[in-house]
Amino acid sequence: MDNSGQKSKPITLEALGVIGTTIGIASLAFVFTAAWLTPHRLTPEKIVSALKPPGGPALGHRRNHAKGICFMGTFDANGAGSELSRSTLFESGSYPVVGRFNIGNADPATPDPMAQVRGLGVRIMAPTGQEWRSAMIDAPVFVAPTPQAFLELLKAGASKDPNAIKQYSEHHPEMQTFASWAKSHDRTESWTEDRFNSLDSFVFVSREGLRSTVRWSLVPMSKAVTIPTDELAKRDPDFLQEDIVQRVQSKPQDWRLMVTVAGANDPTADPTRAWPVDRPTVDVGILHVNQIQPEADGPCRDVSFDPTVLPKGIETSDDPFPAARSAAYRVSFNKRLEEASQYPRTQPEGRP
């Protein structure tokens, strides 16, 4: 729903605590930056540095969402997306996918039950060589309205000042929606039961040149089964990974790719603001996950799910985050290359 006309409610200390914990364990889903052309204010290096946990980064690993597992599958397009975009990936057919399930945290040893944010990255490949990469999370909105605000939030979360988050929230009441979600949303028993959302907006360009601003979601075809909080705490530290291995061994796991088209006045540059629920939504195909492989030597390990890697027919919008994320992802990837000797490969000849 559109929150633009709603009066903000006071943020409770409990909710602030949830946010503080979220930031503290670096469990936010995306890396964002702002004012990209004003390096004195912000750089991708500053964002990546701000994601660093108190004990330092896990060398050789992604700087956020460090724990994950690879999958292979297909995206079966039904042709409906061709009305919105001229991308060949929306033409009826089956296209190979490499992806990664993950949890939002900078520590690759984080127990799965502690994850407040879950994520999914995909790389869909067309026969033409074009690719569509996307990194999504299960939150319905993001925690910060601008990349600059996100950096300020990260700094507040790392600050020794006990009032830092409270002071941030007073200037950014829009964080309440994310805070409420992080505090109370139901945790499912499996990635296969989670919905993953792009949050950022993009532009689809049709063959006729018509431009539509959109967001997309992967909607699970498995029924959600939630885990009570007390039971979640007892689950195995790797229960999500163990679950996805077992399920995919049994049969492919599926999500519908749903594309939502913005209205004329919907906010397209602010991922803290959801669009009204009555916006047109198009079912453009199904993601099938057919195979799981550990990340250590899996096909997703060296993939950066850069959201600006887009096929013809999909473009970035006025949302500043994809470009910012791209730059920060590049910094993170370069650090992984530099630290390749620190990564726990299972095959010595594996590339970084």
From TrEMBL:
Record-level Gene Ontology MF annotations: catalase activity; heme binding; metal ion binding
Stored SMART domains: Catalase (SM01060)
Descriptive protein name: Catalase-related peroxidase
Top-rank taxon, per record: Bacteria
Biological process per Gene Ontology, one example term: hydrogen peroxide catabolic process
SUPFAM superfamilies for the chain: Heme-dependent catalase-like
Positions of the Catalase core domain: 33-352
Cofactor: heme
PROSITE patterns: CATALASE_3
Keywords annotated in UniProt: Heme, Iron, Membrane, Metal-binding, Oxidoreductase, Peroxidase, Transmembrane, Transmembrane helix
Transmembrane regions: 12-37
UniProt xrefs under PANTHER family: CATALASE
InterPro entries hit by this protein: Catalase (IPR018028), Catalase_core (IPR011614), Catalase_sf (IPR020835), Catalase_SrpA-type_pred (IPR024168)
Enzyme nomenclature, EC number: 1.11.1.-
A Gene Ontology cellular-component term: cytoplasm
Enzyme class: oxidoreductase
